[in-house]
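Give me the fold.
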Amino acid sequence: MQLLSVVPHLATFVVALADEMPEDEDVKAGWGAFAIFIALGLAVVFLGFSLVKQLRKAQAAEDAGLYDPSDREPRVEIPVEQPAERRAADPQVEQPDRRPEDPA
């Protein structure tokens, strides 16, 4: 049981030796890290432009009829709700059921 009481003290000692904190003046990012940061930003911009270019080429090929039309999926139209004043003027639009308000 003597050994088990020494383990926490030993663990604290080992962590204190291994966890040396550098001084504030010793830690700096430097120009290398700045260059890497700029390079990553430029890579994202390049990839974005390349993606747009490829999507435009694919759309142009589809518009030219290079793809099999039977593979084309039908376009899904997302219904857009009309503003309230347009709905009231449009007789084809169903009006929602309105409950009478409580007089209380």
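The two ends are 77 Å apart (CA to CA).
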